[in-house]
Amino acid sequence: MVLPPTVIGLVLLNTLGRNSGLGAFLWDRFNFSVIFTLTGAVIATTIVVLPIMYQGVKSAFLTIDQSLIDVAKTLSATPLQRFFRIILPNCWPVMLSGILLSFCRALGEFGATLMVAGYIQNKTDTISTSIYFLIQDGRTQMAVYLAVVNLFIGLVALLVIQLLGKKDVINK
Which residue ranges run through the membrane (predicted)? Predict the structure, then answer.
């Protein structure tokens, strides 16, 4: 969470590139490379947002009343039953909020995805990289359009998060 996304992208580039051990293995065995692919962009973005997702899930699990889990144990509920019947139903709004925050952060990811996936138009471009390169090409109106779409998606996600927070408060 403290590393700049560009540094994460550099680490991934050195880890997954064809000259690295893992990258060479993927290329030699499967003729597959994640560098300059949409898969690489997804991997980079996932690693960048993973700390946000982790914190969201952790805080969701901490909201569970321990006495509910203890009661389920006394009633001989298995760990899977406790997880699916007690923990998940009681913390899904907080977990969904974490997922939405991670998604919003992923929409804005630029550094790691550009390092790993590059910018190949209609292949590895993301909203953020497209906006940047549209500005570079002087196509400001299209860049503004994409920025508004990105903003709209983010606002809808934040609205859902707020509604989930109010539902969570109402239920308690």
Answer: 33-54, 142-164
- For 21-87, where are the alpha helices, taking DSSP H only? 21-30, 38-62, 66-74, 79-82
Q: Which residues of the chain have pLDDT under 70?
A: 167-172
Q: What does residue 138 show for φ and ψ, rounded to 5 degrees?
A: 80, 15
Tell me the whole-structure pTM to 2 decimals.
0.79
Contact of 45 with 113, CB cutoff 8 Å: yes
Per-domain boundaries in the chain: 5-171
Taking each helix axis from N to C end, the angle separating 88-107 and 38-62, rounded to the nearest 10 degrees, works out to 140
Please provide the CATH number assigned to the domain covering 5-171. Answer: 1.10.3720.10
Q: How far apart, in whole angstroms, are the C-alpha atoms of residue 35 and residue 10?
A: 11
